[in-house]
Specification:
InterPro entries: Nucleotide-diphossugar_trans
Shape: globular
Order of helices and strands: HEHEHHEHEEHHEHHEEEHHE
Distance between the termini: 22 Å
Number of domains: 2
Protein name: Nucleotide-diphospho-sugar transferase domain-containing protein
Number of strands: 10
Helix content: 25-40%
């Protein structure tokens, strides 16, 4: 799948939007990935390792009895990596934009335009291939967190309330559907506690999200204070500095939070 994803980038993207393609994987998989990519290992492609010892669940999440849904540790850490490492790495490498791709994300036809120039010309900050409604097990609690952020920072969103019922801050809550949460394998004990809270079973945020398997965003935008990008640990900066020197040379140990076989294209 990764080979197909990269091949399609060469066919349909790089001719109009030149960029670098980074693949992160565990060190013992480096040679295998490079071998499988074969002739696609061009000068703008780098396969970079992550130290196995750093790919661990943080202590605050060690109690797996509190985990929701069926996703494993690697899948959960992937989301952290995409926010905590990838943008910082790309900025250290001198890039202005990131295109986030899964290893099974396929650009099926010619893009036909330089996406960087398109973003610059129109002032675009973020673009996604698709919007979808995630299941409640994935988004549970997210609108409450968003509401806390908006109220605490006195921010008025431009379009968020269009996806809420009612279309105001009062509609920014998780609709409680026990059956839907059961489908996500939420533990019965947690469901019983939720039942006792008397949560609203109608209205709320409709769970529309930008599908993260193919999106592009401005790093200048990502690091704005209002976006709230978390600050990485000091060792993350050091890892980015090392990667900047060696990304297209010898293999380099990168950072505490990278993902197994995750591909990203940066411009």
């Amino acid at each position: 799948m990764l080979r197909t994803s990269l091949d399609l980038c060469f066919r349909n993207l790089f001719s109009t939007t030149p960029g670098n393609f980074y693949v992160f994987t565990f060190e013992d998989q480096i040679s295998n990935v490079v071998q499988r990519l074969g002739e696609l290992m061009q000068p703008n492609v780098a396969v970079l390792p992550v130290q196995n010892i750093s790919w661990t669940v943080p202590q605050m999440a060690a109690d797996r009895g509190r985990w929701h849904s069926f996703h494993n540790a690697n899948y959960r850490l992937m989301g952290d990596w995409r926010l905590a490492f990838m943008p910082h790495f790309a900025r250290k490498m001198g890039h202005r934009y990131v295109m986030q791709l899964d290893d099974d994300s396929y650009i099926l036809g010619p893009v036909g335009t330089n996406l960087v120039e398109l973003f610059d010309r129109h002032g675009y900050l973020l673009a996604a291939r698709n919007a979808q409604r995630d299941p409640p097990i994935v988004t549970w609690g997210l609108p409450e967190l968003a509401r806390f952020y908006l109220v605490t920072n006195k921010v008025m969103p431009e379009t968020l309330f269009e996806f809420c019922e009612p279309q105001s801050i009062e509609g920014l809550y998780s609709e409680y559907k026990r059956i839907k949460l059961e489908e996500g394998l939420l533990p019965k004990a947690q469901l019983d506690k939720l039942n006792q809270l008397g949560l609203r079973s109608r209205g709320g945020w409709n769970r529309t999200i930008l599908f993260g398997n193919c999106l592009m965003y401005s790093l200048e935008w990502f690091f704005r204070a209002e976006v709230g990008a978390p600050k990485p640990k000091q060792n993350l900066y050091r890892a980015c500095d090392v990667a900047q020197d060696d990304a297209f040379g010898h293999t380099t140990h990168l950072a505490p939070n990278c993902v197994r076989s995750n591909a990203g294209h940066v411009c």
